[in-house]
From TrEMBL:
Natural source organism: Kytococcus schroeteri
Alphabetical list of NCBIfam families matching this protein: folB, folB_dom, folK
InterPro entries cross-referenced by the UniProt entry: Dihydroneopterin_aldolase, FolB_dom, GTP-CH-I_C/QueF, Hppk, Hppk_sf
Keyword Transferase: yes
Domain 7,8-dihydro-6-hydroxymethylpterin-pyrophosphokinase: 210-221
Family affiliation: Belongs to the DHNA family. In the N-terminal section; belongs to the DHNA family.
PANTHER family documented for this protein: 2-AMINO-4-HYDROXY-6-HYDROXYMETHYLDIHYDROPTERIDINE PYROPHOSPHOKINASE (PTHR43071)
Protein name: Bifunctional folate synthesis protein
């Protein structure tokens, strides 16, 4: 995971948390540390709206500690995460960590500190389109799927059958094999796309001729889920969903096979696939070669 990190340390507030009566009655000081991993590109536009406002974060941490008492530090830590995640920008942080210190805890032996750390990672679905028409396309796609599943912060959750498709764009070249992989990821969209480009490069991909033949093509088609209201439409200069995805049967058809309920631009992906200009050029492909997904997480 790449990107910037905001660290807010030593936020002190008085609360009435604990299991003992005197803790609820008298209260004590709590100290909170926050680590917020920001989305890639959060600082690119010098816009505070694109990042997490640490002043607001400090205020909600104090308000939560001073709020409704709970018995456990673990519960308080989760409430603090809820409060930060509810802030503008908080819901876009791929990872949040809160540590709650209780320096005056009722412990009968000398101690320096007692604390609980809670971590929350934001995992969103993403759709990755795969294609190849040079060398051993089926083997290359199987290797690419394994590399995708092995990426840190990525879980492979679905995979379409292989389909054979006619080339589009007018460049003379062999037929393609295409597929779609469904993943869930804690990586930001731009970070995930950069990782996909790394997989392409590892398989000998070069970008020379538009619409030309290629050993491997990986596209980030959709990030987030429009059905759940989590779809991301832009991250830095990256525009999502993929601008031409709704026109490409070689993407839409395998996507609908992997997720029959998928939607894109407010329409069912299966319907878009049936209406696409290149729908007649999509055929069943060969079976997948053996997939070695030992790195899947």
């Amino acid at each position: 995971m790449t990107g910037q990190v905001v660290r807010l340390s030593g936020v002190r507030a008085r609360g009435h948390h604990g299991v003992f009566e005197h803790e609820r009655r008298d209260g004590q000081d709590f100290v909170v540390d926050l680590v917020a991993h920001l989305p890639v590109g959060a600082g690119a536009g010098d816009d505070i709206g694109a990042t997490l406002h640490y002043g607001q974060a400090a205020e909600v941490l104090v308000a939560t500690v001073e709020g409704e008492p709970v018995d456990l530090l673990e519960t308080l830590a989760e409430r603090l995460l809820d409060a930060v995640q509810a802030l503008p920008g908080g819901d876009r942080c791929p990872r949040l960590e809160v540590t709650v210190h209780k320096p005056q805890a009722p412990i009968t032996v000398p101690f320096a500190d007692v604390s609980v750390t809670a971590v929350r990672e934001r995992e969103l679905p993403a759709v990755v389109a795969l294609g190849a028409n040079l060398g051993d396309p089926a083997g290359t796609l199987a290797s690419a799927v394994a590399a995708l599943a092995a990426l840190p912060g990525v879980r492979l959750t679905g995979l379409s059958p292989l389909v054979e498709t006619d080339p589009v764009g007018g460049v003379e070249q062999p037929v393609y094999l295409n597929a779609v992989a469904l993943v869930r990821t804690t990586r930001g969209a731009a970070d995930l796309l950069a990782a996909l480009h790394g997989i392409e490069a590892a398989h000998g991909r070069t970008r020379e001729v538009r619409w030309g033949a290629r050993t491997l093509d990986l596209d980030l088609v959709q990030y987030g889920d429009p059905r759940a209201g989590t779809e991301v439409h832009a991250e830095g200069e990256l525009l999502l969903p993929h601008p031409r995805a709704a026109e490409r049967a070689f993407v839409l058809a395998p996507w609908a096979m992997a997720d029959p309920a998928a939607r894109l631009a407010g329409q069912a992906v299966a319907d878009l696939a049936a209406r696409a200009d290149d729908a007649g050029g999509v055929r069943p492909g060969p079976p997948w070669p053996a997939l070695h997904l030992g790195g899947e997480r």
